């Protein structure tokens, strides 16, 4: 069984951010590479503004649909505090790819709870390797906030056990079929996500 | 549309358990399928509805869906119904006698347990129904098995003249995995044959059926012992072996790749002899089942005393690897698995909220203003969120439709402290039609003093906006007869002058209506009539904004509970001889606001104005 290496990716965010779509694209990419896949989604009452996570597991043969805490290879955080909430799911040496957007829930806004000043710093203080950048700013520059999904997938593309081009093709292929006009901008978004992740990684290497 | 619907045979697809079951139901030649929505089972019927050549419906409740399936089975059609675990409680009256009468066309009941309690009021183990009703229980462990087992369940149903329970959990329904699909096996409907001795369950006829039911259970036990759904994976490390079923099997296999495992798919009647033989092959046997010790207790009763189960494993929640690994390490005298590498960070809770412009907010805002004068009996739906911040205006939730029965009980059991309080019940449209309306009839009949708030948002909102008998649309989105709630309440005996229809966006009107009705000492109903903002019936309005210089920081608008209203800054108001008051100045996220206007009525200084007025003034 030792040759059955499983890749565990935990995608997290808030209802409506595209967490499920990102997880679906990762799962389909793994299938295209001949992997067995399981994708777990317990959204619960998440469509009412709650926390959303999706577990994506792929490899030769996947049994449990659930990522065991401490074994995730990659954490994709669509929102920065949500990224910090699930950081302990990572294995030693795993990476957290985090969009720095701060989405404040009503319980924080009215003062019942405090939004942490710097969730990324908290994660780093805990020893987690975090690559962070403002995916929303990139999406705004490209003129469509919905591109955050493609940007975040581009950001993790160099940390997957298959070539980035395979993931890109999975995203672009969807648009080629349905909205050809969106192909080019998604390619751009994917590339900019990759760049942003690389830059964050380099900055971290320089600054420690 | 689900990719599974048009997939050719032998295609391999990534499907949720619910999508896979729908495909299996269709392939099995099922002709009639019915359900009431309930997490995590809802998408089964939504997917079945996309297939051709079978009739599918939203029934008003699970019992009716069961009865529709029974009628179709009696008529020789393969039939199916799906429900969440608590739905089976509702359906069980019909089910417990169906099991005596048996089937003509195969009848499969899919019951989805919310193991881990992500979206329910309790955690039940539906495998009990197999024992209670003397019917077989099949338990798939992933999407492929769910797809295959639902087809096998139809065959088993016809072979043994019994309904079959397909027991699911959230980790089947809402996990996607690869499924290879097949062809449809189309079957003709044989038609209903009159046979009163069989279908009219008088005591005399039922007495004849009872011994047959016992004999059937014995035959099923033999079938379970031989079933290919119960498989031994011998493994290489015999120190501990597992008997397991459903998703727990996947967690066991993942955690202990070399352990011997007896994986049960046909779990009731329990194949005790097969398990005894397996017991002899391992040093220690652990029964890993979600959630109750059903197999374990039965095995112990059958003489397998030296086995482990719920003595070491939890009796609630999922048996995921992080639960199993430390328990089994301890059992084997090994070191526990290392703790996670990184400390847990717990930022703040992010509880579900109501949507901007949700009409329920107006009701709870108003109830929160009357809080000291009312006891509020609640029900099941999005509006259960009224129990939380900022409204704290819902006092009970037990089961579907319970709000009015409970309200009457409260009305009839008053203390010195509560004798002057009004009793209010709050229920949604779909829940009212499901099991609620009998409660209202009971209030009328027994001269109760309860004000019922019927929140008609034209949607089964909590499960994702399904249609029902009050929306005017059917399962396929087609036009359907639409119940008139006011007439229905009048027919149930509420006086016409005690039935009021109110726009919940008009807070002063709503406040007056509730205040007036709770003062009247007889049954009354207030129907709110704004649609769910996520439904096709909702049309948004233009957004509002806060004029910052006019906002006095009173924070009254925050009590509406709209997630589009947030605090922009805080301050303290100091007045001589008065305690300090914390001020919260607010702003409206205009991208979220759809202009429902509720916060405008809550604002004393009139600081909330249409956004366009604000921008025009600035120009």
Secondary-structure map:
The complex is a heterodimer of chains A (208) and B (619).
Chain A: E1 7-14, H1 19-32, E2 36-41, E3 51-59, E4 72-77, H2 80-85, E5 90-99, H3 106-109, H4 119-125, E6 129-133, H5 135-142, H6 148-156, H7 164-178, H8 183-207
Chain B: E1 12-16, H1 17-27, E2 32-35, H2 42-48, E3 55-58, H3 62-74, E4 79-84, H4 85-101, E5 107-113, H5 128-133, E6 137-138, H6 143-160, E7 164-169, H7 170-173, E8 175-180, H8 196-199, H9 203-226, E9 231-233, E10 240-245, H10 247-255, E11 261-264, E12 266-268, H11 272-279, E13 284-288, H12 294-301, E14 307-308, H13 321-331, H14 360-369, E15 374-377, H15 402-412, E16 422-428, H16 429-445, E17 450-455, H17 485-491, E18 499-502, H18 507-519, E19 524-528, E20 544-546, E21 565-573, E22 581-588, H19 598-602, E23 608-610, H20 611-618
Parallel strand pairs in B: 2-3, 2-4, 4-5, 5-7, 6-7, 10-11, 10-13, 13-14, 15-16, 16-17, 17-19, 18-19
Antiparallel strand pairs in B: 1-8, 6-12, 9-11, 20-23, 21-22
């Amino acid at each position: 069984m030792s040759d059955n290496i499983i890749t565990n990716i935990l995608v997290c965010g808030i209802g409506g951010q595209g967490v499920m779509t990102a997880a679906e694209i990762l799962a389909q990419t793994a299938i295209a590479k001949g992997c067995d896949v399981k994708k777990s989604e317990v959204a619960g009452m998440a469509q009412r503004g709650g926390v959303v996570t999706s577990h994506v597991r792929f490899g030769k043969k996947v049994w449990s649909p659930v990522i065991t805490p401490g074994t995730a290879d990659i954490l994709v955080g669509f929102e920065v505090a949500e990224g910090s909430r699930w950081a302990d799911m990572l294995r030693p040496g795993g990476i957290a790819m985090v969009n720095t957007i701060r989405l404040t829930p009503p319980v924080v806004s009215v003062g019942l709870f405090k939004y942490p000043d710097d969730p990324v710093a908290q994660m780093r203080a805990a020893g987690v390797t975090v690559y962070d950048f403002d995916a929303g700013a990139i999406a705004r520059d490209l003129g469509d906030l919905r591109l955050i999904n493609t940007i975040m997938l581009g950001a993790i593309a160099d940390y997957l056990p298959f070539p980035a081009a395979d993931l890109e093709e999975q995203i672009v292929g969807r648009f080629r079929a349905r909205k050809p006009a969106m192909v080019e901008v998604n390619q751009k978004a994917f590339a900019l996500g990759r760049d942003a992740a690389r830059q964050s990684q380099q900055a971290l290497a320089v600054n420690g | 549309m689900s990719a599974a619907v048009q997939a050719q045979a032998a295609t391999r697809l990534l499907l949720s358990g619910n999508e896979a079951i729908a495909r299996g139901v269709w392939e099995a030649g099922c002709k009639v399928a019915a359900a009431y929505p309930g997490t995590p089972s809802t998408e089964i019927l939504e997917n079945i509805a996309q297939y051709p050549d079978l009739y599918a419906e939203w029934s008003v409740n699970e019992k009716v869906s069961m009865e529709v399936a029974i009628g179709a089975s009696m008529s020789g059609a393969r039939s199916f119904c799906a429900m969440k675990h608590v739905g089976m409680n509702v359906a069980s009256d019909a089910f417990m006698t169906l099991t005596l009468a048996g089937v003509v066309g195969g009848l499969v009941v899919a019951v989805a347990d919310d193991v881990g309690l992500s979206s329910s009021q309790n955690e039940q183990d539906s495998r009990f129904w197999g024992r209670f009703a003397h019917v077989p229980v099949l338990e798939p462990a992933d999407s492929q098995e769910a797809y295959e087992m639902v087809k096998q369940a139809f065959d088993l149903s016809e072979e043994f003249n019994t309904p079959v329970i397909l027991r699911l959990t959230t980790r089947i329904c809402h996990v996607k995995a690869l499924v290879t699909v097949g062809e449809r096996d189309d079957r003709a409907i044989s038609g209903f044959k009159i046979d009163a001795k069989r279908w009219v369950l008088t005591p005399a006829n039922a007495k004849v059926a009872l011994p047959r039911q016992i004999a059937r259970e014995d035959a099923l036990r033999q079938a379970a012992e031989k079933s290919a759904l119960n498989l031994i994976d011998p493994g290489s490390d015999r120190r501990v072996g597992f008997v397991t079923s459903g998703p727990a099997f996947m967690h066991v296999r993942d955690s202990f790749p070399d352990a011997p495992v007896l994986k049960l798919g046909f779990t009731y009647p329990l194949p005790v002899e097969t398990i005894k033989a397996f017991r002899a092959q391992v040093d220690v046997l652990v029964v890993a089942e979600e959630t109750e010790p059903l197999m374990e207790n039965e095995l112990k009763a059958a003489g397998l005393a030296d086995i482990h189960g719920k003595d070491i494993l939890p009796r609630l929640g999922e048996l995921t690897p992080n639960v199993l690994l430390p328990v089994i390490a301890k059992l084997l005298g090994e070191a526990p698995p290392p703790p996670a590498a990184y400390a847990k960070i717990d930022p703040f809770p992010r509880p579900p909220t109501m949507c901007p412009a949700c009409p329920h907010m107006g009701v709870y805002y108003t109830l929160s203003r009357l809080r000291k004068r009312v006891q509020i009996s609640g029900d099941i739906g999005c509006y259960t969120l009224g129990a939380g911040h900022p409204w704290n205006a819902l006092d009970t939730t037990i089961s579907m439709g319970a709000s009015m029965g409970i309200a009457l009980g409260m009305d009839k059991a008053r203390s010195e402290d509560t004798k002057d309080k009004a009793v209010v019940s709050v229920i949604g449209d779909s829940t009212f039609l499901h099991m609620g309306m009998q409660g209202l009839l009971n209030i009328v009949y027994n001269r109760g003093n309860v004000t019922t708030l019927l929140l008609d948002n034209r949607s089964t909102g909590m499960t994702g906006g399904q249609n029902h008998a009050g929306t005017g649309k059917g399962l396929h989105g087609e036009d359907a007869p639409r119940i008139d709630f006011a007439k229905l309440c009048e027919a149930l005996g509420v006086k016409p002058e005690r039935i009021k229809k109110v726009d919940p966006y008009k807070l002063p009107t709503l406040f007056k209506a509730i205040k007036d009705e709770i003062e009247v000492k007889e049954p009354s109903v207030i129907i709110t009539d704004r649609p769910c903002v996520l439904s096709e019936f909702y049309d948004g309005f233009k957004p509002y904004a806060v004029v910052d210089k006019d906002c006095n920081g009173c924070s009254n608008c925050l009590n509406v509970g709209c997630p589009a209203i947030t605090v922009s800054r805080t301050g303290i108001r100091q007045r001589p001889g008065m305690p300090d008051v914390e001020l919260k100045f607010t702003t409206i996220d205009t991208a979220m606001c759809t202009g429902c206007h509720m916060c405008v009525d809550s604002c004393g200084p009139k600081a909330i104005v249409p956004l366009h007025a604000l921008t025009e003034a600035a120009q």
